[in-house]
From TrEMBL:
This is diguanylate cyclase. It comes from the Bacteria. It holds the Pfam family GGDEF. It comes from Ideonella margarita. CDD domains: GGDEF. It catalyses: 2 GTP = 3',3'-c-di-GMP + 2 diphosphate. Residues 459-592 form the GGDEF domain. InterPro entries: Diguanylate_Cyclase, GGDEF_dom, Nucleotide_cyclase, Rev_trsase/Diguanyl_cyclase, TPR-like_helical_dom_sf. Keywords: Membrane, Nucleotidyltransferase, Transferase, Transmembrane, Transmembrane helix.
Length: 597
């Protein structure tokens, strides 16, 4: 029901709740209150959700039948409702303690739900890399526990995150693949609510790819679905995002209309987050239209700026207010708002840092660099603005403000361009030109890192050498171009079957290296079979279908003996040689040096 019509789901739980109350059936009352709270959270109705949760807590306190399971479900539903309302660091601490309590009780469905609290918290704070890992974990646990709504929403999130994760180049096609996968999982279910979310997230991906026109159309589609369902938060979200796209496309008048329709909806619901977004859009659109009555929009915007709204959003609102004040000629106030926006940006980055510490992820380098760059940018901006303000009076300040902003934008563009260019060059230096896979240097570095990790933590890890069989014959009979297409086909097959943390690269010629952390030799026959069938299913230009080309594989276990990469590759090479000698098209595995294979 949550997938199709959460409002309908809420009504249904309410009816059941009334009956359970009349029958004094405390257990059913408890579950119906949790169900109602969850639906209200989905509908972004924080007030109603808080009411149901408070009632559930009161019930639990006086009910002798209450056990740890009830407490944990209440804690998890509460945490889900609190995403965006309490600081992320606090929420992550709660996630950790819920997990600690749930694991010994063996509650996979609850653990999956706890993972989804973590996902939303990470998405909210903009920690995309960790959010990606969390969404992948949820897709797996939801599929295992048969939790379709969690599974589809995890896949949808993967789509919307796919352009924002480090090391992935934003590509609409890739995001669309995830959305298509989510739709395929919904199959023939009506799932109007989930479909509206998919449209909405697809709009986001198109916007990230700088296609505001297409993005607007998808936001409008999401809006129409939400209107059909009477989902007020969905309607407001669709209006705001469609409005933002209209503004980007220069249609500030329509953007203003959209924002103004969203405002009363969210005021009535007390939805602080969307309210802030609507005010921001009103201000931006009016500023773009150079309307002097923007003055009247400033005060309500300031009232909507609540402490529980994430600092990154508050920073954007402060920025919009600064621009409106500048339009009105109130330069001193504009300057103060700009400074406040900078402070809020700083807070937002601190929040991200704290969350990451809790995640115990080894991604500190990237986070630190981000913080340093932003800090540097902030200091430059503030220093320039302060200098200009002292030197000239109010009027001169405004001119200076404009100039400083232009300079800053120019500098940021240069820095970003330079950074992109360097990143492209660095990527090229690590990529194999023909297959697009990591090249020899990159795959060896990845293998080295995984070996060190496996040896340090004594975790399993497998290295496998793959060599295409009779490749020379393919070249000789069908030509070099067909040989190249075979190499590309293997790369394509690997993308279909390997997991995101497996690494596959080309060592040279027709030889490839596969690194599989977290797996043992016993898993290798299955990996070999999967790769083998995916490879034979790929069409190769110049060869019949199926192409009939095969490969051999030699795999070794990293073990704890402290063997170097070259020693491991040497053993894998021997195993590969055995596979070739035994007739090819097969796998040979070898255990650690100390243990017999
Ligand atoms: N098309 C193409 N061929 C390549 C490339 N790099 C290496 N080769 C060819 O790959 C062939 C390797 O052949 P061999 O090492 O004799 O091995 P094989 O024919 O695969 O036989 P087995 O490994 O014993 O099954 C040589 O003919 C190389 O010229 C490439 O980038 N493209």
């Amino acid at each position: 029901m949550a997938l199709d019509d959460p409002q309908g789901g809420l009504d249904w739980s309410q009816q059941k709740l009334a009956k359970a109350r009349a029958a004094q059936d405390v257990e059913t009352q408890f579950w119906m209150l949790l169900g109602s709270a969850r639906m209200a959270t989905t509908l972004e109705d924080a007030q109603r959700s808080a009411g149901y949760l408070a009632e559930a807590r009161r019930l639990l306190a006086t009910w002798p039948g209450a056990g740890p399971m009830h407490r944990l479900w209440l804690g998890t539903t509460q945490a889900l409702a609190d995403v965006r309302l309490v600081p992320t660091v606090e929420l992550m601490a709660r996630v950790l303690s819920l997990r600690r309590e749930a694991v010994p009780l063996g509650m996979p469905d609850l653990l999956c739900e706890v993972d989804s609290v973590e996902l939303w918290a990470l998405v909210d704070v903009g920690n995309n890399d960790d959010a990606w890992a969390a969404a992948e974990a949820i897709e797996r646990c939801a599929a295992e526990t048969g939790y379709l709504d969690l599974e589809v929403s995890a896949i949808t999130q993967l789509g919307s995150l796919s352009g924002r994760v480090s090391g992935k180049v934003p590509a609409v096609g890739q995001a669309e693949d995830y959305f298509q996968r989510a739709l395929a999982r919904l199959d023939k279910l009506p799932a109007r609510f989930q479909r509206s979310l998919i449209e909405f997230e697809l709009g986001g991906a198109l916007n990230a790819a700088r296609l505001p026109g297409s993005a607007r159309d998808h936001f409008l589609r999401a809006l129409a679905l939400s209107q059909d369902l009477g989902d007020k938060a969905g309607v407001a979200a669709g209006q705001i995002r469609a409005g933002e796209m209209m503004l980007l496309m220069g249609d500030a008048e329509s953007a203003l209309q959209m924002a103004r329709s969203a405002l009363p909806l969210m005021e009535a619901q007390g939805n602080q987050l969307r309210l802030t977004a609507a005010h921001m859009l009103v201000l931006k659109a009016m500023t773009a239209l150079k309307r002097p009555d923007v003055a009247a929009a400033l005060e309500p915007a300031r009232r909507a700026d609540a402490a529980n709204v994430p600092p990154a959003r508050r920073a954007e609102l402060a920025q919009a207010m600064a621009e409106a004040l500048a339009l009105l000629g109130q330069h001193a106030r504009a300057y103060a708002e700009l400074q406040r926006a900078n402070q809020l940006r700083g807070q937002s980055l601190e929040g991200q840092r704290d969350t990451q510490m809790l995640r115990l992820q080894a991604r500190y380098e990237t986070a630190r660099r981000d913080v340093e760059t932003t800090e540097l940018r902030r200091q430059t901006e503030t220093a320039q603005l302060a200098l200009q303000a002292r030197e000239a009076g109010q009027r001169a300040l405004w001119t200076a403000l404009g100039a400083a902003c232009l300079l800053l934008v120019g500098a940021v563009v240069m820095v970003v361009r330079g950074w992109r260019h360097r990143r492209q060059l660095a990527e090229l230096a690590l990529r194999d030109e023909l297959t697009g896979l990591p090249n020899r240097r990159a795959i060896r570095a990845a293998a080295q890192a995984q070996i060190e990790q496996a040896q340090r933590w004594q975790g399993p890890c497998v290295l496998a050498l793959i060599d295409i069989d009779h490749f020379k014959q393919v070249n000789d009979v069908h030509g070099h171009a067909t040989g190249d297409a075979v190499l590309k086909a293997l790369a394509k097959a690997s993308a279909h079957v390997l997991r995101s943390h497996d690494r596959f690269g080309r060592l040279g010629g027709e030889e490839f290296l596969l690194v599989i952390p977290g797996s043992a030799l016993a898993d290798m026959p299955a990996v070999f079979d999967r790769l083998r069938s995916a490879f034979s299913a790929v069409e190769v230009l110049g060869l019949p279908v199926p192409h009939g080309v095969r490969f051999s594989m030699g795999a070794v276990d990293v073990g704890t003996e402290g063997e170097s990469l070259d020693q491991l590759l040497d053993r894998a090479d021997h195993a590969l040689y055995e596979a070739k000698a035994a007739g090819r098209d097969q796998l040979v595995v070898r255990g650690p040096v100390s243990a017999p294979a």
